[in-house]
Amino acid sequence: MSVTVRIPTQLRTLTGGTGEVAVEGATVGEALKALDAAHPGFAERLFDEEGRLRRFVNVFLADEDVRFLEGLDTPVQAGQTVSVVPAVAGG
Amino acid sequence: MSFVTGLRCRECGRRYPAEALHVCDFCFGPLEVDYDYEAMAASLSREKIAEGPRTIWRYRDLLPVDDATPVDLGAGFTPLVRADRLAAELGLGELWIKDDTANPTGSFKDRVVSVALTKARQLGFKVAACASTGNLANSVAAHAARAGLASIVLIPEDLEEAKVTMTAVYGGTVVAVQGSYDDVNRLCAELASEHPSWAFVNVNLRTYYAEGSKTLAFEVAEQLGWRAPDHVVVPIASGSQLTKVAKGFAELATVGLIEPATPRISGAQAAGCAPVATAFATGADAIAPVKPRTIAKSLSIGNPADGWYALETIRRSGGSCAAVTDDEVLEGIRLLARTEGIFAETAGGVTIATLAKLAAAGQIRSDERVVALVTGHGLKTVEALSGTVGPTASIPPTISAFDAAVGEGPDTGGLA
User: Fold this and answer.
1) Fewest C-beta in 10 Å: which of B1, B68, B203, B251?
2) What was the ipTM of the complex prediction?
């Protein structure tokens, strides 16, 4: 399943400046692990020691927070967009 | 002068220069402003502050930006009103209302926007932007107009009419987004990545913006004769204001303007959007996001950026947190208006209703000096009261019709 991952400014140093990366994966978690394989450094920033999303990382699949879906286990469809967004904004 | 020494990640401690940065590149933790408190203490005095303007800028030494001509509509130094009649109704002793409805655009947001846009202008930005539940939109549009900056304001499409009008009148770009505030916020967080030349006050300028809320604590302390209250009740949307109020009192003690004190800080939320109150009630160590459903739209943030820190602040201070129903919110608005003559928006209704609830539960005590923050004006959300208040009677212009409708009228206390 090919999906697009949108990268926030803060992490574009890991992708050579690009804001979107195409990766393969059947779930949100797999897509993010594929992102780390292609551009090492993402995993330690996105996940804590237990492999959970860090407190200040929000991940959206097709504009919905994955915490309202099945978290990292949420299945993805070909062509969908996964957005990584810093949680600290707004209010 | 500015006593800022840089920015620091609240989570991992990495340091950054004082630029338009809001999260740590490494762990995404929020960046906080670091100050040289020793130099600040040497420069500050109660007398120096008293000689300053009757705005937030009297506390410029304690703020993250110093400017002889700040972007300023006169935010701050709002009334602190002794509320004896409300206290009597609630069985409380010394109660004060911090009346932030008196700000230039009718809410506390003028404090944070004045700070953020002053910093943005210093950094060379020409465009002010924000994600807003309404009050921030009003304030950004107004302050941008004042400063001659362009503005781009994003709001959820279901906002109260007054908040939309009070934003659009200033002539900037206003975009209504089909979704919740959390959708707007996510969009703005992504737009901030695509448009680094726009100063999103609550995204890339958030580190400075949030510091503006400390002025609520500074003013309360000064207006109480340079002492902290025992207990403060604060509404929670993103949770930023609550954490900064606590920080404000702590800083005043650090620089020697008040005796060291740790006021209890209690949080107020609407039951239809209560992620922090729920975590407080269940003892959780994480905030589970919710889909908001309440008339208190200015507090409708289901995924609060500073929710965790607000929870931690409440717990550490020995405060409490509660959520109130929409009916209780409306009763809170009417109670404050009826007893103290202050007309609050729905968020103020949340604060007053939570104050009443915590007082009834004995969590706010009658021997405490209590301050409740009323952060926005009722004219912004009049439709929430639709059908609950209105004329006592509608009559033709005759004495007989008046007598029939009103009778003798209220007790005149013996005056003929």
Assistant:
1) B68
2) 0.90
